[in-house]
Amino acid sequence: MILPPATLGMLGGGQLGRFFVAAAHEMGYKIWVLDPDPNSPAGLIADRHLQAAYDDYAALDVLAEGCAAVTTEFENVPADTLDYLAKFVPVRPGASAVAVCQNRIAEKSFLRDNGLPHGPFAVINVDADIAAAPASLYPAILKVARFGYDGKGQARVANAAEALHAFHAFKGEPCVLEQMLSLDYEVSVVLARDENGRVKCFPTVENRHTNGILDVSIAPARASACQRDAAQEYAERIAERLGFIGTLAVEFFVSRGELVVNEMAPRPHNSGHHTIDACVTSQYEQQVRALCGLPLGEARQHSASVMVNLLGELWYDGGEPHGRYREPDWSLLHAVPGLRLHLYAKHHARHGRKMGHFTVIGSDADDVLAKALAAR
Ligand code: ADP
Ligand code: MG
User: Fold this and answer.
1) Integer Cα distance of 6 and 1 in angstroms
2) Which parts of the sequence bind ATP (predicted)?
3) For domain 120-179, is the CATH number 3.30.1490.20?
4) Is the pLDDT assigned to residue 319 strictly greater than 70?
5) Separation of CA 151 and ligand 1 centre (Å)
6) Which residues pair with 49 in a beta bridge?
7) Are 287 and 23 within 8 A, CB to CB?
């Protein structure tokens, strides 16, 4: 076991890293964050911020030398970086698990090879792959295989001609072409898995997206108990097959009553933010525990919760780009009983950028949902 006051390393300095730093600090650890952005939310509160690129090997040497173990909050860290660090220190999750989750082609192939439910798709490497894709895929979504997030790197296409146009707009980057599914709703499962394969699963969460970005998460999900359990079983199977150590999130679609895996994230997840306020152990503390070889904490949810994301457009009066930049009036949110506000200290608000969130907790799920939607 790695015990305090050991120093832990974090690759990536976004809000997920910031919550990890906060959880680790509470537990008595020191944290070094590696992120090229001088204003990264996690870097601002870390014990040391290595301001360097993810493939800067001199910086990686410093990190490996100074830290007892290293984790990531960002799935696009190059797998080579994780492999390199793993020569010197424990790296959790490992490069092979992250490599699957950071590439939609590898991810879809993994689901198919492991008998996990997924939607119809085709791999698009060259123009001819579009011509060869079955017409039954349309209407479809073309997604770049790497580096997409919050709906970026995606195009909705009605037919092969539009798919070809979008593929060229993505500069011929490898893509997956997915059938557009009719969604009843979306759910996700966040779990933690330790080095001995023991798993603690948080209750299944229901997610509402707006313009491809998570808007509201309702926990526990209002899906049938049978569907909630099935989602957890699939997520556990994925973690086991990946040999995953750390906090993992699996996003699902429920389409015509059927659960379909959408994608995985090898890190804590936006739809698990509520675990800070509504569960015995947060997804971030679980990441610390799995990284350090501590027993995983209890994942039980003690309160019903609804999480609402706060995006950059809230910072503009009359809308971006012509509106006036101003800080929203937080006193209104602080006055709502059971509401907890979390702001990420990002220096600039941009349209669609995740700037913060709030969670409303309480004993009655309907009441919590009504309060959260009213506060929005
Ligand atoms: P990201 O990496 O941006 O989260 P996702 O693949 O999860 O990418 O897509 C974002 C959102 O877009 C999903 O949560 C869902 O609402 C919608 N979406 C994505 N793929 C499909 C699909 N095949 N059918 C219907 N909706 C989809
Ligand atoms: Mg997603």
Assistant:
1) 10
2) 104, 143, 148-154, 178-181, 186, 209, 262-263
3) yes
4) no
5) 7
6) 33
7) yes
Q: Quick one: fold of 7-91? A: Rossmann fold (3.40.50)
Per-residue pLDDT at 322: 66
Task: Return the CATH architecture of domain 185-375.
Answer: 2-Layer Sandwich (3.30)
Catalogue the E-assigned strands of the chain: 7-11, 30-34, 48-50, 69-72, 121-124, 140-144, 154-157, 175-179, 185-193, 199-201, 205-210, 213-219, 246-255, 258-265, 304-311, 316-317, 324-325, 339-343, 354-362
Q: What is the CA radius of gyration of the chain?
A: 20
Tens-digit pLDDT profile for residues 38-61: 999 999 999 999 999 999 999 999
d(CA 265, CA 276): 18
Distance 286 CA to ligand 1 centre (A): 26
**Of all protein residues, whose CA lies closest to atom 8 belonging to ligand 1?**
151
Q: What is the largest CA-CA distance in the chain?
A: 58
pTM of the model: 0.96
251 lines ligand 1 (CB under 6 A): yes
Torsion over CA: 100, 104, 106, 108 (sign): positive
Report the C-alpha gap between 21 and 325 in whole angstroms.
Answer: 29
Looking at residue 150, its pLDDT comes to 82
Going from N- to C-terminal start, the domains of the chain cover: 7-91, 120-179, 185-375
Ligand 1 in reach of 180 Cβ (< 6 A):
yes
What's the rounded Cα separation, in Å, for the pair 176 and 153? 11
Q: How far is CA 183 from the centre of its chain?
A: 20
* Distance separating alpha carbons of residues 171 and 370, to the nearest angstrom: 44
